């Protein structure tokens, strides 16, 4: 990656138990309201249970906004999106602007989906200035919440540690909108997923966007191959279940990098064996969210050495489905503002 530390047009927004309830969903709600007739809203997301937010999208379409929404049809908790899907696909819904994608999987327990997932979280708005937000937040909570059992299983993102990064770079926004509309048109086809545009990368100089599924090596792993003696690498991860990814982080530590991990508190998302392997290799490891009973849902890497500082963020997890099968997005950026904002948040989380 070329090093360009000058500040670009990014803004970072955070959610968490120390932030106002629903801070990120309210941000999306306000941006929906700001798009006038003749404008456009383009979204792709994984969990969507927020019925008032779904209604806002319908109201936007009714006032003449072009709304394109692509949603995972059968997420891991299979019925989680059922009510919103019913609203958006109903007689007064979004019509052809709404599409669910449910990719084929393997036999799994009742109510649990084991299969490739549409796991990206990207939200684009044409007005008042073209803007795209992407990161780790999806509107998984509802208002009012009528099914706390589902929310307990998937985690309430209205209080979880999360982030959305907004860009107003016209070229980046335009390409993200094009990406969403391509998913809407052809996102479930095998050709699109493995031989078409799904696994492309976009280089903006200061930032490279990577998309999944991919056949080759993981771009974030390849990026971290360039770090060793004297480097500091900090990772916030909601899921670390791939033994391959654990081995890569251990190799990074063995090359002389100072490696620190903030993880989710549940053993399902980050198994105890993962923690033990990393600690044994000298990796600093800490779990977040247990005291507040909230998910640690950030997907973040902060990497720095004598040549510069980089931030990596998006929807990707350190799991085999995320590596090879899911639709995912990751940004690797040398933007100084983005690094500083995530660095500040890291220090807040460690001190909190």
Description:
This protein has two domains: 10-192, 2-Layer Sandwich (Endonuclease, Chain A), CATH 3.30.870.10; 196-351, Endonuclease, Chain A (2-Layer Sandwich). The protein is 31% helix and 23% strand. It is built from eleven helices and 15 strands. It has helices at 23-33, 51-62, 82-89, 148-154, 170-186, 190-194, 219-224, 243-254, 272-280, 320-324, 336-351; strands at 10-15, 40-45, 66-72, 98-101, 122-125, 131-135, 162-167, 201-203, 207-211, 232-237, 258-264, 284-288, 300-305, 308-314, 329-333. A hairpin with a 5-residue loop joins strand 5 (122-125) and strand 6. The longest helix is centred in the middle third of the chain and has 17 residues, at 170-186. The chain is globular. 47% of the residues are buried. Residues 1-5 have low confidence and may be disordered.
Structural class comes to alpha+beta
> CATH architecture of the largest domain, please?
2-Layer Sandwich
Task: Write down the overall mean pLDDT.
Answer: 92
Q: What proportion of the residues form beta strands (DSSP E)?
A: 15-25%
Q: Tell me the number of strands.
A: 15
Biggest sheet features: 8 strands, mixed
Shape: globular
Q: What series of H and E elements makes up the topology?
A: EHEHEHEEEHEHHEEHEHEHEEEHEH
Low-confidence stretches: 1-5
């Amino acid at each position: 990656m070329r090093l360009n530390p000058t500040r670009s047009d990014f803004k970072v927004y955070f959610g968490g138990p120390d932030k106002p309830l629903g801070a990120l969903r309210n941000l999306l709600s306000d941006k929906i309201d700001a798009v006038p007739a003749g404008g456009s809203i383009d979204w792709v997301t994984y969990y969507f249970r927020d019925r008032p937010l779904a209604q806002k999208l319908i109201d936007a379409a009714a006032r003449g906004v072009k709304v394109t929404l692509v949603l995972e049809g059968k997420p891991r908790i299979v019925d989680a999106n059922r009510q919103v899907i019913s609203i958006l696909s109903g007689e007064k819904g979004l019509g052809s602007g709404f599409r669910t994608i449910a990719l084929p999987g393997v036999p799994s327990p009742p109510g649990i989906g084991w299969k490739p997932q549409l796991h990206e979280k990207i939200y684009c708005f044409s007005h008042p200035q073209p803007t795209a937000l992407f990161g780790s937040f999806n509107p998984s909570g509802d208002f009012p919440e009528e099914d706390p059992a589902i929310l307990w299983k998937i985690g309430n993102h209205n209080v979880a540690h999360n982030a959305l990064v907004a860009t107003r770079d016209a070229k980046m926004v335009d390409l993200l909108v094009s990406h969403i509309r391509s998913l809407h048109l052809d996102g479930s086809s095998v050709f699109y997923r493995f031989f078409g545009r799904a696994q492309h990368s976009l280089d903006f100089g200061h930032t490279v966007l990577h998309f999944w599924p991919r056949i080759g090596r993981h771009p974030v792993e390849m990026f971290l191959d360039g770090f060793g003696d004297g480097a500091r690498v900090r990772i916030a991860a909601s899921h670390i279940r791939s033994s391959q990814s654990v081995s890569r982080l251990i190799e990074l530590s063995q090359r002389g990098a100072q490696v620190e991990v903030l993880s989710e508190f549940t053993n399902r998302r980050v198994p105890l064996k993962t923690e033990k392997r990393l600690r044994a290799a000298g990796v600093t490891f800490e779990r977040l969210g247990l005291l507040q009973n909230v998910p640690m849902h950030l997907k973040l890497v902060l990497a720095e050495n004598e040549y510069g500082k980089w931030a990596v963020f998006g929807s990707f997890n350190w799991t085999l489905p995320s590596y090879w099968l899911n639709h995912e997005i990751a940004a690797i950026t040398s933007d100084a503002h983005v690094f500083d904002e995530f660095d500040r948040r890291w220090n807040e989380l460690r001190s909190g």
